[in-house]
């Protein structure tokens, strides 16, 4: 019975202390929310924990809030919680101490210069990606870091596949130009 109900109907039942409504919303939205959140955290396990906590907060606050569109509420909350997670984490990533010597398998070609220059290039690429507009950056990361196809991205973000295609094309085109400028300035 619950599977056929709309999100709005489930939200109304949730306000009436119906735990099955929460379970149905959880099953319906958990995986796409985790994938979406992982775009920001770059850590799927952390994303799962954030989304689980989001549903706990949803249950705890079921009486006090009037949510008109639960799907939008969940995705906006997931994004904000992921950004808060990143702010709290704030680990340095651009230092030589980040290289775990014990786990690295050095070969003759892995000289200190090559290791440092590849880390600097990686950091530079991430910096260039961060200059993209938020929508382009999000779709680019979902496509190339999370390996989601355009249909999955469109479902998660609630936009058309054609919009994902166009945005991805624009972001890659802009990224190529920015990386070309980055290489010139690094030389």
TrEMBL record:
<protein>
    <submittedName>
        <fullName>RNA polymerase sigma-70 factor, ECF subfamily</fullName>
    </submittedName>
</protein>
<dbReference type="InterPro" id="IPR007627">
    <property type="entry name" value="RNA_pol_sigma70_r2"/>
</dbReference>
<dbReference type="Pfam" id="PF04542">
    <property type="entry name" value="Sigma70_r2"/>
</dbReference>
<keyword id="KW-0731">Sigma factor</keyword>
<dbReference type="InterPro" id="IPR013324">
    <property type="entry name" value="RNA_pol_sigma_r3/r4-like"/>
</dbReference>
<dbReference type="InterPro" id="IPR014284">
    <property type="entry name" value="RNA_pol_sigma-70_dom"/>
</dbReference>
<dbReference type="Pfam" id="PF08281">
    <property type="entry name" value="Sigma70_r4_2"/>
</dbReference>
<comment type="similarity">
    <text>Belongs to the sigma-70 factor family. ECF subfamily.</text>
</comment>
<dbReference type="GO" id="GO:0006352">
    <property type="term" value="P:DNA-templated transcription initiation"/>
</dbReference>
<dbReference type="GO" id="GO:0003677">
    <property type="term" value="F:DNA binding"/>
</dbReference>
<keyword id="KW-0804">Transcription</keyword>
<dbReference type="GO" id="GO:0016987">
    <property type="term" value="F:sigma factor activity"/>
</dbReference>
<dbReference type="InterPro" id="IPR036388">
    <property type="entry name" value="WH-like_DNA-bd_sf"/>
</dbReference>
<dbReference type="InterPro" id="IPR039425">
    <property type="entry name" value="RNA_pol_sigma-70-like"/>
</dbReference>
<feature type="domain" description="RNA polymerase sigma-70 region 2">
    <location>
        <begin position="25"/>
        <end position="89"/>
    </location>
</feature>
<feature type="domain" description="RNA polymerase sigma factor 70 region 4 type 2">
    <location>
        <begin position="125"/>
        <end position="175"/>
    </location>
</feature>
<dbReference type="InterPro" id="IPR013325">
    <property type="entry name" value="RNA_pol_sigma_r2"/>
</dbReference>
<keyword id="KW-0805">Transcription regulation</keyword>
<dbReference type="InterPro" id="IPR013249">
    <property type="entry name" value="RNA_pol_sigma70_r4_t2"/>
</dbReference>
């Amino acid at each position: 019975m619950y599977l056929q109900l709309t999100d709005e109907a489930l939200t109304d039942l949730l306000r009436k202390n119906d735990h099955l409504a929460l379970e149905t919303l959880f099953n319906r939205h958990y995986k796409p929310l985790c994938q979406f959140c992982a775009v920001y955290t770059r850590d799927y396990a952390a994303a799962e924990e954030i989304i689980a906590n989001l549903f706990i907060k949803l249950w705890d606050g079921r009486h006090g809030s009037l949510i008109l569109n639960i799907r939008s509420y969940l995705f906006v909350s997931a994004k904000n919680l992921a950004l808060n997670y990143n702010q709290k984490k704030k680990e340095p990533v651009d230092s030589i101490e980040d290289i775990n010597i014990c786990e690295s398998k050095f070969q003759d070609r892995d000289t200190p210069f090559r290791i440092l220059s590849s880390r600097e290039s990686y950091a530079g690429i991430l910096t260039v990606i961060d200059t993209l507009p938020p929508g382009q950056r999000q779709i680019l990361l979902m496509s190339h870091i999370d390996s989601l196809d355009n249909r999955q991205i469109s479902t998660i973000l609630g936009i058309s596949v054609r919009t994902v295609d166009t945005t991805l094309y624009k972001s890659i085109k802009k990224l190529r130009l920015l990386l070309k400028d980055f290489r010139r300035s690094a030389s």
